[in-house]
Amino acid sequence: MPYQGVIARYKKYLPVTKKTPFVSLQEGNTPLICAPGISALMGPKFKVYLKYEGLNPTGSFKDRGMTVAISKAKEEGVKAVICASTGNTSASAAAFSAKAGLKCIVVIPQGKIALGKLAQALIHNAKVVEVRGNFDDALRVVKEISSNYPVRLVNSINPHRIEGQKTASFEVCDYLGCAPHFHFLPVGNAGNITAYWKGYKEYYSHKKISYLPKMCGFQAKGAAPIVRGYPIKNPKTIATAIRIGNPASWQKAIEAKEESGGLIDMVSDAQILSAYKFLAQEEGVFVEPASAASVAGLFMMKKRGYFKKVKNKKTIIVCTLTGHGLKDPNIAIKSIRRPPTVKASVEAVLKKAGL
Ligand code: AN7
Question: What is the pLDDT along the chain (355 residues), one digit of tens a residue?
C-alpha cells in the first residue's frame, strides 16, 4: 500500500471510525535525520537525530493535527473552521480546508507573520483577518467567535489536533525501534509538547516502547511565560512562530515536563539564530527560527552540564524541527551578508568566490 497519511497509518490510535472521511495531504512520514555535526559536539556516547517536520505538505508539523481536526469537522457536518495563528496553523488550516471544501477563517497578529505563511493562507483562499494585537489577543477573539457561531475552532485547544500531532512520537519510535532518551522541542502554545508526551505514553502503555523520554521544551527568552511563571503581555522574539505570551496548553506542558522528569527552559534570540545557522551550515537542514529553539536548547543544556549524570552507553536524543526555513526567507537573508555583484567575467567571479 502506498503511504496515505497519518490517519491511515495510525488509525488504531486515533478517534476515527469507518464513517470518518480522511482528509489528507499525505502529511507525516517525515525523516528522522542523523545529525553527525551535533552528535560530535555532544560526545561519543550521544546520537542526535532531527525530526524534520518542515517536510510536511504545508511545511510544518501542524499538518499532523490538522488532518484529524479537519476530517472530524467534515464528519460532523461542520461548514467553516476558524483559528488564530502565528502563521503555521493558518497555513495548514487553509490547505486542509481547501481540500475538504470548508470555509476557513484565519485571525493573525498584524505584521508578525512570516511571509511564506501569509502567502500560504492567502493562496489557499482562507478569509484572513489581521488584528491589532498579538497571538494571544487573536486566540481570545476566535475562542469567543467559535463558542457563539457555527464555526469550528481548529487551534490546538481542539483535542483532535493533539491526537493527530502525537503521531510524530509514534514515527520516532517506529523508526528507532525504541524511544529516545531525551526529546527536545520548541514551545509556543504548548500543543506539540503535550501531543508528543501523549504519544509516547500511549506507545508505552501498548508496550511498543519500554521506557519514556525526558521532554525538554524551549521557549524564546522574550516570550517565556511558562519558564517565568506568569503570562507575558508583550512577547518579543525574532522566532515569530513562538511569539506567544499566554499558552493555551500551559498546564499540560508542565505535566509533560514533570511526569517525564524533563525541563522547560528558555533560549535567547542570539542562541536561536546561532543554532539556526548551525543547522543550515553544518547539517544541511534549513528550518525556520522557532524550530532552531530545540537545538539551541540542546547546546545550552550541554554547556550547563545537564548530560553529565547520564549513565547510558548510548544516549539517543531527538530534536524536533517544527517548520521549514522557506517559511521565513526574510530572516535568512537578514542574518547573512548580501551577495556581492561583480562584472560578468571569470576573473571577477573567481576573485569574489575565493577560489
Ligand atoms: C514552527 O501556527 O502557534 O508549542 O499559530 O509554528 O505546539 O504551539 C505555531 C507554533 C513551534 C510551537 N515551531 O508549537 C501557530 C503556532 C513552529 C511553530 C511552534 C509553532 P506549540
Answer: 899 999 999 999 999 999 999 999 999 999 999 999 999 999 999 999 999 999 999 999 999 999 999 999 999 999 999 999 999 999 999 999 999 999 999 999 999 999 999 999 999 999 999 999 999 999 999 999 999 999 999 999 999 999 999 999 999 999 999 999 999 999 999 999 999 999 999 999 999 999 999 999 999 999 999 999 999 999 999 999 999 999 999 999 999 999 999 999 999 999 999 999 999 999 999 999 999 999 999 999 999 999 998 989 999 999 999 999 999 999 999 998 888 999 999 999 999 998 8
Q: What share of the chain is helix, strand, coil (3-state, %, to 5)?
A: 45, 15, 35
C-alpha cell at 59: 511545511
Whole-number Å distance between alpha carbons of 10 and 2:
14
Task: List CB contacts of 73: < 8 A, sequence separation 6 or more.
Answer: 81, 100, 102, 152, 154
| Residue located via cell numbers 546520537 | 47
Whether the CB-CB separation of 45 and 315 falls below 8 Å is answered with: yes
Q: Please tell me if the CB atom of residue 151 comes closer than 6 angstroms to any atom of ligand 1.
A: no
How is residue 256 annotated by DSSP? Answer: H
Decide whether any atom of ligand 1 lies within 6 Å of the 320 Cβ. no
Of 53, 55, 62, the residue with max ligand 1 atoms within 8 A of its CB, to mutate for a pocket test, comes to 62
30 C-beta closer than 6 A to ligand 1:
no
Q: Which residue has the cell 517559511?
A: 327
Rounded Cα distance, 293 and 101, in Å: 35
